[in-house]
Amino acid sequence: SRAIGEALIKSGDPSVVLTLVRNMEAEISHDGFQSLLVLCENHEELLAPLATRQDLTAPFAFQMFWLAPAQLRRFILSRFLTDSETLTKILKITMAANSEDDSEPEPLNQHTLLEALERAARGQIEIAAEELSGVMQLSVATVAKILSDLQGDALVVMLKAAVYPRSSMLGLLKRMQSADLPLISRERDLTELQSMFETLSFNKARILLTYWDWAQSKTGPYAAHH
Fold this sequence. Notes:
Radius of gyration: 18 Å
Structural class: mainly alpha
Number of strands: 0
Order of helices and strands: HHHHHHHHHHHHHH
Helix content: 55-70%
Largest sheet: none
Mean pLDDT: 89
Low-confidence stretches: 97-102
């Protein structure tokens, strides 16, 4: 039952919690999932079985993204960014300021984007986040989190939503990886990031950014009353 599940989660015992998460018949409440995400920060072995639970919802999955290794991140995106009808509805709501919903998205001014990324690669994350916040229609906190994620996946999502040209993508990734203060880990395989950029659609990238922004502001599905 949910009550027993919550009690087991509160115990904080990794082996107990892992057994619970692997039990697909166990009921886990909204608060229970939130507590599990906190536990995942120190116990990575919980991530994979949690990501495969049928009762895991998209909002929690997109929060898990930040804690997950590259392979699990790809699984999360492939599983939870599939409902195109729902995604389109959410996108139209969040992009309501743009009356031409069916028009092609306008590319972000490349000079503005590249200048901000260069600032970030010099360690000026907060300044870069402020510069990109308005043009990307995201909070400063969300952009800063994206720029601070050394795996590079979140940066790729933002670049896709910015309609960055495909032909210039690999070159930009290399610059961000070789910078004095890299935005992408030196060990990260850039071909994987390039592939992710090419297969991810604008709509899905924008939706993912929206969920991350909601999580930062505790609004939408992350609001307290949910």
